[in-house]
Amino acid sequence: MNIQQTRNGNELVVALEGRLDTVTAPELEAALKDALEGVEELILDFEKLDYISSAGLRVLLVAQKTMSQQGSMKIRNVNEIIREVFDVTGFSDFLTIE
Amino acid sequence: MKQKRRPGIAFTIICAILLSQAAFAVMVQAIGAILFTNSFKKEYATSTYYMANTAAALINGDHLDGYAAGEAAEEYELTRQRLDVYCRKMHVSLLYVICVDTSDYGRFVSIFNSVDNTVDNTSYTEWELGFRRDTTNDEYRKKYRAMYEKTAPYETVYRTTRLNGHNPHITTMVPVSDSAGNTVGILCIQRPMRELRDAYRPYLVSVAVWAMVSCAVTGALAAFYIRRQFLRPIQKTADEAIRFARENTKGEPLGKISRLREIDDLAGAIDTMESDMLTYIENLTSVTAEKERIGAELSLASTIQENSIPNIFPPFPDRTEFDIYASMTPAKEVGGDFYNFFLIDDDHLAMVIGDVSGKGVPAALFMMVTNILLSDRTHMGGTPGEILTYVNRNLCEHNKADMFVTLWLGILEISTGKVVFANAGHEDAAVCSKDGAFALYKTRHGFVAGGMQGIKFRDFELQLQPGDKLFLYTDGVPEATDGENRMFGMDRTLDALNANREKTPQEILEGVHGSVDAFVGEAPQFDDLTMLCLHYIGADKKNDVHELTVDATPENLGAVTEFIDGVLQEAGCPMKTQMQIDLAVEEIFVNIAHYAYEQETGKATVLITLGQDPRAAHITFLDSGKPYDPLGKKDPDITASAEERKIGGLGVFLVKKTMDNVQYVYRDGRNILSFQKNL
Fold this sequence. Notes:
The complex is a heterodimer of chains A (about 100) and B (about 675).
Chain A: E1 2-8, E2 11-20, H1 25-35, E3 41-52, H2 54-70, E4 72-76, H3 80-89
Parallel strand pairs in A: 2-3, 3-4
Antiparallel strand pairs in A: 1-2
Chain B: H1 9-57, H2 64-68, H3 73-89, E1 94-100, E2 107-115, E3 132-134, H4 138-149, E4 155-159, E5 169-177, E6 183-192, H5 194-247, H6 261-308, E7 322-329, E8 337-345, E9 348-356, H7 360-379, H8 384-397, E10 405-413, E11 418-424, E12 429-432, E13 438-441, E14 460-463, E15 469-473, H9 489-499, H10 505-520, E16 529-536, E17 546-551, H11 557-570, H12 575-596, E18 603-612, E19 615-623, H13 650-658, E20 660-667, E21 670-678
Antiparallel strand pairs in B: 1-2, 1-6, 2-3, 4-5, 5-6, 7-16, 8-9, 9-10, 10-11, 11-14, 12-13, 12-15, 15-16, 17-18, 18-19, 19-21, 20-21
Helix pairs in contact in B: 1-5, 5-6, 7-8, 9-10, 11-12, 12-13
């Protein structure tokens, strides 16, 4: 999985590419842990993300909890498959998906 | 709140006795008073009559008229003095002689008049000779007339009560006669009835006192008697009855507690009731215990019976040429219906369905014997006809209870789909060709097994094409009866089958069962309900089983996904479906990698098969780790907010939601989790 971060003041855009699964989820978790310092607006760009599993959902939940305290989090360009996973698990109820 | 104590028997009876005694005493007193007064009056009347007669003898009647005119003054004076003396000596308060005017007895003339006011403390004044007076009192006039007309020897006037300040007294009048015997005057004597007055009150008081004493004595005696004869035994009986009602334990028998028949009967009845009741309780306890024991045994028997036939599905998760499902719903705890299926060898699947005559424990035992005979014999080889012939012979030899069983036994040659079967009096199987509908496959039935020695059973053949389905059932299905005694029937059975014919065997049986339940409604289940359904997929797909065994570590997820994707891509699986399957595979594999072997590393095997009808991927995971059913876990709350969300449980939940027919069994030391996804 490829993680690309673009910092713009208090805004952080993280673009993901590939599969967010059991193997890759820890990488994203580690990356976000360092990068979220001082971020008020986190934008996750899923345009090139093909796949997400429950391990990925876990990282999103942690990120959402962090951002709820220091700002806001948005997810962008979610494909149909990932959208369905969000719907089935009820994540679409609390994630901000554009 | 304490209940007000109601009066007891003793109080009530004693009160009644005392009241009746008091009434009796009052009556005795009243009667006594009347008799007493009358007897005194009689005594006074007699004695005063004699006194008056004596006084009258002192008077010379021949001169009586003359005295008033002043004749014989000397004789008059002498008589008067004698009468005065008499008056004083005889304690007479008043003595007088009068001449009454006999025309209407309304007037009289006083001749003699002696008064002794000291006798009765009176204040009469003497009448002068010749004193005239009118008599207005009718009573006196009547009595005067009686004296003159001599209709009575004497007359008496009583004053028993105090009148005008005078004490009770008696006035007796006797006639004064002349020598010719004619009445010329009347002599009256008035005497006080002192004895009457003096004795009356003491008499009444003594009667009252004695009545009270008698009341008290009889009351006390009654109380004593009632206590001894009634109350103690009744109280004892009541206490015993209350104690028994509370404790339900054996107590001292009451025995002979009274000489009175009714109380003795009551006590005897209580004794008998207690001992009967205790015997009854004891019986009931042992009957209940026995019932519980039988219930426990039945429940155990039910479990044994259930486990004597395959009841874990899918039974052959690694066999993809066929799918088989069966269900049995006994009407009682244990039933006489049964099904069975097992692999005789790699290429032969035996399927049996049977229905023993009768229900309950005898049928269940017979069923077990039949099933064991049949499966043992089947494993030895031979055609279904030969097997049934053998089973029938063996059942008949030992069948003392005249039971029998209908049997359908078929052996499927998995590689070809050929079913050879024999039928011992059982219902015809229903077959559904791939593109058709379920229809009965009718053949000649043999006689029931266990009914008659020496029967030979014929073999029949039936060719299944890939995608065909075979449905076996017992008469409990078509003969299920609703509240109005209508039977479900074969037509409804076939309708229910056809309504579900595209589905998996399990769904078909559930569908039929649902239709039967809906038809029967509230009516009690009368017969066992047993069904078996085989979906023949075909042996030529056997090559589509792909298997991969890896170490169960998260690092191998990539290898597993790659393996699955390879198979799916070859089958032309759409990308979206592939992603969904990948997700399910990841979740299950990671679960095994994380939890199955704890600290150690074990193997995980994944099987994937592509079914052609319908086009579906069947995926099975096997591991030898600790038994763990991930499907048994509660689903996560997907309505919770981000803050309330728990991490975990989402993976299995996702599998359940996105895959079909997700199943878990633990068998032969392996966790087997399987699911499928239509392509």
